[in-house]
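Quick one: structure for this chain?
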Amino acid sequence: MRDLDFYAYHGTSDTSAKKIVASQSFIIKGNRTNHWLGDGFYLYREDYKQASVWAQTKYRFRKNVKPTVLEARINAPFNKVLHLDTREGIESLARFLSHVREEILFEPEEDKISAHFVFSMMDPEYVWAIIKTFTVQSRPIDENKRLKQLSFIHNEEEISYRLQGTQVCVKNSRAIVDSSIQEVAMDKQAKLTMTKKVVKEDDFPWKFQ
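Got it. Here's what it folds into:
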């Protein structure tokens, strides 16, 4: 099976961005319980604007910090990536969870296991990266009246218009193509709010029929 090859984006400060670009390496951080895919370096897959909004939100009250977005090319053998948006990836995770429960004795009544704990147990030599799509809270999108009118399946709510963000947790630096990390100019259109304006044909990358 061919390799996974795509671009991913990371929001950070201008100071951190310069250090990362200069060293062409990301620091794999550990012991962060809010990292639901385990220890690693987090990026958004093919979603520059989500990384931009994340950086703007994080540093919005720090006037001396310039929000910055970095781009990196990810390339890894398919069998080195745990892709949790695929059937194969979920089945692999289920097998790993069974193995974890056999190796580590959990109390019978303990029906929940920390995802961070489980993913951090995976060996970076075998799992270079983990990919998972999550629903992202965004008030401008969640409360958009026009989007709320959109129905994918009649009388069903499982599929919705809500913003989805595909996150990539890089656990092994070999997943990042050499010399591919670079700063991306901040897009003035990647704003934190959706402004009301008259819709024009030029606002879209496609044409009305």
